[in-house]
Amino acid sequence: MTSAPGLAAIQQAAARLKGQIVETPCRHSRVLSQITGAEVWLKFENFQFTSSFKERGALNKLSHLSPAERHAGVAAMSAGNHAQGVAHHATRLGIPSTIVMPRNTPFTKVSNTRALGGEVVLHGETLAEAWDHLQEEFIRRRGMTLVHPYDDPAVIAGQGTVALEMLAEVPGLDTLVLPIGGGGLMAGAAIAARGLRPDIRLIGVQSSVYAGVGAALPGGPGAVRGGQTLAEGIAVSQVGRLTLPVIVELADEVVLVEEHHIERAIALLATIEKVVAEGAGAAGLAALLANPERYQGRQVGLVVSGGNIDPRLLASVLMRNLVSESRLISLAIDIEDRPGSLGRIADCIGLHNGNIIQVDHERLATRMHAKSARLKLLVEVQDEAHGRVILDELRRSGFQASLQQQSELP
Length: 410
Fold this sequence. Notes:
Rossmann fold, VC0802-like, elongated, 6-stranded mixed sheet, 4-stranded parallel sheet
């Protein structure tokens, strides 16, 4: 049975990848450190060409191929970052690549993979059906080499180079907090970090709806629930057969994070660090936000593992974050339905530096007087106290104004 790589294999992978991928920076975040109570260092793997650490494992696997294997080409099953990493580096090395994706894969992921030179085959309605087709048609019948997203020693070794770079740049790190999907990054980084620093603390992070490690352990939380998650990159129901034993042996702890913590982490990385992170890439920070007391005073390294988030989803997360921080408030104001009423309200809000984002003018509600109207305003403010100043001033000006709850926002 194939075994996981050792530290030497990861160090060899680092030498092999040098100059072919971005050696991404690992930078201290003063503001995130203040928020969490830990000294937070961020490894920006979203700066890779395909915006994900997945390039490392894919390229290391491709670099192991014989001339005959290169000629026959490689195949992978992925609807995300792994697909783009394989396609990009296979094309760069002159190796034909085929990526099998389920038919319902978002078009942007399909077009991005094709743009990087991969042949995309859409098959099946599920990842399982796509996987079976990959195995039968491309691996067995056509003799192509499988580039597994995580369950391959060369892939694990490639991912482990992330930890080598982090510890070389920031030797004082005493804790690494890493996302776990299939386990390639966590396993590789754990082997590398533990090999160099036996005393380092290793924390794995999973979405609470895809707790594959816990489900595989005796006495764990049981079957993976599945469902919607912002952390699509780690929405894996089953951890790899090579990666799981490594994680069980080397990780000090595997923690689960809820969706609202992932959402806040995405927003903080965007607003504070000015970087785009997908849900999986924000999972490490989400773990610190969920339980800051576990990490207080520690030198913590987080991997922003990817930045491939749908722009509409990112926009929604950022707007929702403004609401949660009371920087976007909803006001309901009953007015007499006559010219000038809306103008006076706008003047009052503008005078106190509020910014009206949206106006809903309701005249037809049967419970209101026929000569009345209700305004619903979405207003950007500095903070909760600023919103309260504007509300009080509207009331002092004679308007019947009230603050709506978050669930009532238009």
